[in-house]
Each structure stands twice: as structure tokens, then as C-alpha cells.
Fold these 3 entries.
Entry 1:
Amino acid sequence: MTIMLKNPYAQATFLKSAALVSQLPEDTGFEVAFAGRSNAGKSSALNCLTNIRQLAKTSRTPGRTQLINVFSLADETKRLIDLPGYGYAKVPFQVKRDWQKNLAHYLDVRQSLRGLILLMDSRHPLKELDQSMIEWGLSRQLPIHILLTKADKLSRLQARNAQLLVEKHYELMADLLSVQLFSSLKKQGVEELIKTLNQWMGFGEELTGGDNDGGER
Ligand code: GDP
């Protein structure tokens, strides 16, 4: 049975792009960041969640725009943060290095950051940079929710195995890390993602359906 949750992210609006952490909005309230390799499906997932088409544009020039995109919810104390995709081979070394520093700085200092949504192609999960990113987040006690994207490209069994593989890899960190399958194409997993976001964003029961939240897969 599918239970429709209210989606407070459908009203997200683009606030700004920042090249540096110092250009981000004031560090108060609640923030959830989305990260992943270039081409992991991050723009598609954010589109799927927020209906903001403009996001798709950012991925057409992978590596050239190393900007942090900030989206604000109707409740302006809450923001979604779209971090630049990593791992794109053609990014000049210096841009990569600068961005790594910037990212490390963001993860280190940002008090309003409540969790990280980490996207990996379900066909090729846990690449080296993904693992570094996850370990980085975990080392500072940041909750991480993994989306195994493009799940529509796998059979049910393959998808299940991909999820088990990642869960097993981080089984000792299960209190900080969760994993789900996701497909922007089929709109699979959107509700599960919304539930996690709602928890981290500090939304109350009114958004999570209160006593009838049995729709989780
Ligand atoms: P980004 O670089 O992480 O922002 O990735 P994009 O969202 O731009 O997606 C990269 C490519 O994967 C594009 O060609 C998308 O059409 C494709 N893609 C993204 N999500 C899905 C999905 O759920 N299913 C399938 N089959 N393809 C997807």
C-alpha cells in the first residue's frame, strides 16, 4: 500500500549558488546536502523531489561548475544543498583540489548540516571517492542516507543484492547510515527519501502521517 506523504520539498525554490562556504546563507536552521559522483543521477533525483527543472541544467557542464546550489523550502529555516558532483575525469586538477578543500571545509564547519544524501549508481556502488566521502561524513558523526540510483536498470534481485552489498559494507555504522533503492525515472523510493529528509529537517508528525506511517517499504 502506498501512503502519500506531504512533500514539503515540492515547494523548494532556488536561493543562490555559492563558490565558497563563506558565500552560503547564514549557518542557522536545518540543511541537508546531496552529494555524488558526476552522472550518479543527483540532478534527476533533486528534480524528482522538488520539481525544479532548472537543476537539470547544472549537470550538462559537468566539472565546469563547481558551485554549491542552495534551495530554500517554504519554511525558510530549512534548505537543500546541491553539492558539485565529484569524480568527473575532465575536471582540471586545480579545480578538483580547490573543491576538495571547499567540501572538507563545508562538512567540517557547517552547524546547520543535519545529514548527507549520498547518491551512487546502483550498478556501480562504492567507488573509491564514494567511500572517502562516506567515511569523511561518518568520522564527524554526520548521518548518511544512501540512494542507489537508476534502480530501474536492475532486476529486482540485482537491486536487492546491490542494497545488501552496501548495507553489509557499513553494517557497523548502521546507526548513522541507511540505504535505499531509488529511480527518478520510475519515481521509486521518493517517499522513503522524504521520510528521511523530514526527520533530519525537524518536521513534525503532521508531515509524516502521524499514526499511519506504515507505507515504508
Ligand atoms: P548528475 O550528474 O548526478 O546530476 O546526474 P543526472 O541526473 O544528470 O543523470 C545522469 C544520467 O543518468 C542522465 O542521462 C539521466 O537521464 C540518467 N538517469 C538519472 N536518473 C535515472 C534513473 O532513475 N533511471 C535511469 N534509467 N536513468 C537515469
Note: The chain has seven helices and seven strands.
Entry 2:
Amino acid sequence: MIQDKKVVFSGVQPSGNLTIGNYLGAIKNFSRFSDEYKTFYCVVDLHAITVRQVPADLRRRTYETLALYMACGLDEKKNTLFVQSHVPAHAELGWMLDCYTMFGELSRMTQFKDKSQKHAENINAGLFTYPALMAADILLYQTDLVPVGIDQKQHLELTRDVAMRFNQAYGDTFAIPEGYIPTDTMKIMSLTEPTSKMSKSDENQNAVVYILDSKDDIIRKFKKAVTDSEASVRYAPEKPGVSNLMTIYRAFTGKSLEDIEREFDGKGYGEFKLAVGEACADGLAPVRDEFARLMADKAHLESVMKAGADEAAYYARRTMSKVRRKIGFVN
Ligand code: TRP
């Protein structure tokens, strides 16, 4: 806690286009904290370079990710919106926490294992220590609550372990953060391979629905979504495709799974998929419009980034001077 309010921190990578999985699993929830908490939402560009990026794309996506935060309802006056590399304390604390994070712990991270399989030609040290930098992001702001998708749960547990280890060694330094992981939307799965997570880097464009996809594209992708041969809209582990579509439909309409089963009782998958596609496209339309408006004014986005970085740096400095003193660096 800094001052009177509890602190929320979260981050999104500016790599690839964001999917409805990112939206439903994380970003859509961010604005619910704006009033009661001191909120920091960060575009984590330092994390993005753990895999190769085309410089011009990285730069554009950094603007886009900030614009998307805002288009998803984050008011820059009520939330601290900033870019990770604009506040050097992230990299600095990241290094320090590397020294309090164990090789064995990092080796167990499933995201590391996945990404090193996917990028076998570039298993760099940053990819390995990625979770220590994420811990630094969170711990710099004395964060109480971290809204993330379920895939980040393991990184969050590591963050808590590292914070507790540091506090044990040096006395109270970091707040111990809790995760805020929405269970009602769960994981959004690939539309073509519904047993694996919907990933923004999937090569199959039909597997992934992006927040900024056009209505036509969204409907087309849902039409092609993999289901099963049973032809009944029912939520069940042996029906991963249909269950995933129901999860998405529920998230956009607020209907319960039972309501959805009733609504499509005796109806075919064609009708069901169209309904899901329309609910999704309609739900995203305001976000898409606002995004386009924001991207047309780079200067405004830059002023938001600048103000956000100044504000974040102020809080980061307070933690850093404490950390330096505790570790034994000369002031
Ligand atoms: N690792 C997160 C992801 O891939 C992004 C992230 C970086 C993050 N730092 C963070 C999320 C701090 C929450 C808090 O989605």
C-alpha cells in the first residue's frame, strides 16, 4: 500500500495483436479498480524483446497497446498508464531480483518451457529471467493486487516467493501481492485447436480472434470454429470446442451457461456459432472505434505516456531507495 489506497499493477506486452483472450482474461477487468485503488498499467516493452522484434513493429505496437488500454475504458486521469522502458527502475530492480531468484525456480516456469520450444534458435538469458523482471514490475509499486489471466499464475507465485525471500533476509521491504484471476471467464482457447490456449502468436489466423478484427472477420472465424459431431450446445470437458464458444458467449452477453444451453436447445451449431460471432463483434465495436480515434493522435498518446512515466517513477524511486539501503549499496 502506498499512501491511503491499495495498489493494483498489471502489464501487457506490446508484441503481436491482442486477442479476445487478453481482453476477457485481463484488460476488460482493469477499469473496475480505477476508483478504489491506485492503479498502474504498464506496456511491458522490456519483456517483449525476450523474443525477436522488428523495431518499427515494436514501436507501433507500444502506441497501440497504450491506445488499447484507453479504448478498453482506462481513463488516463484515473490510472497511471506508462511504458516500462521509460522507467529505468524496472530494469534495475529486475537485475537485483535476478540475484534472489533461483535457477531451479526459473527452470520450472511453463511459459519459459513453451517459449524455448517455440524459439529454439533464441533461448536467451532474458527469456529465462523474464519472471524476475515481472516480479520487479510488481514489487516496485508495493502492489497489493495483480489482475492477470490464469496463464500468469505461476509467475505470480514466483513473485510472492521472491518478495518473501527478500523480506525474510532484509526485513519488510515489499508488499506481498495477491493475484486477481477471473475464474468466470477462465482461459480462452484456440478456435481451431480448443485444447490449447488462444495465443496472439498463433500462425493459424482462424484460431485467434483479435480485439481489432473487423466484424466480418470475427463472424467468419467463429463460423470455422472447431466443434464436435454431437450437435448439442452443452458445456462438458469432452466438448472443448463448444465449451470454449460458450465461455466466450457468456463473457460477452453475461448469460449463464445454463441459459445458453437452454437458448440453443435443439438448434444446430451453425446458429450457435453465428450468435457467438455477433455477440463478440458487437461487444468489441466500441473498443475498435475508440482505438481508431486514439491512434489518430500520436501526440496525445505521447503526453499520456510521459505523464504516466513521471508518476510511476516517483513511486518507483521510493521503493528503490529502500531496496538499495537494505542490500547495502552506498548511498
Ligand atoms: N508476463 C505477462 C504476460 O505475458 C506480462 C507482464 C509483465 C505482467 N509484467 C507484468 C503482468 C506484471 C502483470 C504484472 O501476460
Note: The chain has a mean pLDDT of 94.
Entry 3:
Amino acid sequence: MRLIVGLTGGIGSGKSAASQWFEQQGICVVDADIVAREVVEAGSPVLAQLVAAFGDWVLLDNGELNRRALREHVFQDNAARQTLNSITHPAIRQSIIQQLEQATSPYVILVSPLLFESQQNQLTSRTLLIDASVELQIARASQRDGQSLEQIQSIIAAQMSREQKQNLADDIVLNDGELAHLYTKLRPLHLHYLALSEQ
Ligand code: ADP
């Protein structure tokens, strides 16, 4: 069995920056966010299931998923959210497993903002948390996406708290300096994972 490292962190913590560094070291990275978009692509069976469950209004004119309409629909409707999750989550999980199996590097990284929340950590051998203060998360995410403070705060509020993630993670990297500093902290972990993958 190939070693699978689950990489997580709140919005703006530096997950993408860290996973890009691992990719540069030749490590295959499976991104749960990308998989989640792929499984509902126009013409996909999962998208057809969503239309069957909710109606045609979940589609845009070009046949793609109307994410905003669906997001707003499930926002305060728990039953609708459960229906959505029961359709998408198994497909996402299946596709993640397939992509992890196709990896060719000594170990593979599964990057997911909701690694613990959606139990995707069950697919991993160990977990790495990219950690940052809420202030830094907000500063970085607002600079990257131009999202409002309220939007970023509501995303942070919906994610598991920093402390909970710290308790669950096997490895923690505090991303509170420059990017070069982050990379310096990642290198010994990369070497450790390589060593573990040879056992
Ligand atoms: P996440 O994927 O966790 O949401 P990103 O890796 O996209 O976060 O980081 C958010 C933004 O902050 C990006 O624009 C990224 O380049 C920047 N960033 C991340 N870490 C640092 C750092 N240590 N120093 C400066 N900018 C950073």
C-alpha cells in the first residue's frame, strides 16, 4: 500500500502553496476540490442525479451546474443539503480513491480543506495540517480572492476550528512567515514521508 498523506488547513492557511511545493518535489497530489468539480461536470451521471433530485433549475443554459443556485438552495435547508451530499460525496470519494491508486510517486498527497470534516482522512495513512492564525487566513484569502471579510469569516466559521484540527493532525506546520520559510519547514516532512514510504 502506497503511503497517503492527507494535507489540510483552513481557507488561506497555505494548503495550495504547500501542495505546489510537494508537487515540485515530484510528489503526486490529488486535490479534493478539483475532484468535487470534476464529478459534477456537464453531462456527468452525478449531475443527472442532481437534476433528478432537485429539478432542471440546477442547470445553467450551457448544461453546467448552477453552483450558486444550488448553494443558496441548500444553505438553510438541512434535508436538501443531505440529499446533495448523499449524491455527491460517494462519487467524490470513489474518484479520489481512483486517483490515489493511479499515483506513481513514492507517496501521494490528498489535499482537502474538509479532510477531517468529510472523513476523507480515513483514506489517508497520516495527516498534515498547514496552520495559520485567523488574522493571517483572512489577510491572505482576501488578497487572493478579493472576497469580503464577512464571506471569509463565514467560511472560517463553517470549517472545523484550528484547535480541533491541531488535535487530529499527525504533523503540523505553522505557516506564519514567508513562503521560503514554509518550504524550509516542509522539507524535513517530505524526507520523513519518503523514509516511511520505503518501509
Ligand atoms: P489555501 O489553499 O489554504 O486556501 P493558499 O495556499 O492559496 O491557501 O494561500 C492563500 C494565499 O496566501 C495565496 O495567494 C498564497 O500565495 C499566499 N500565501 C500562502 N502562504 C504564504 C506565506 N507564507 N507568505 C506569503 N503569502 C502566502
Note: Residues 9, 11-17, 140, 144, 175, 177-179, 182 surround adenosine-5'-diphosphate (CB under 6 Å).
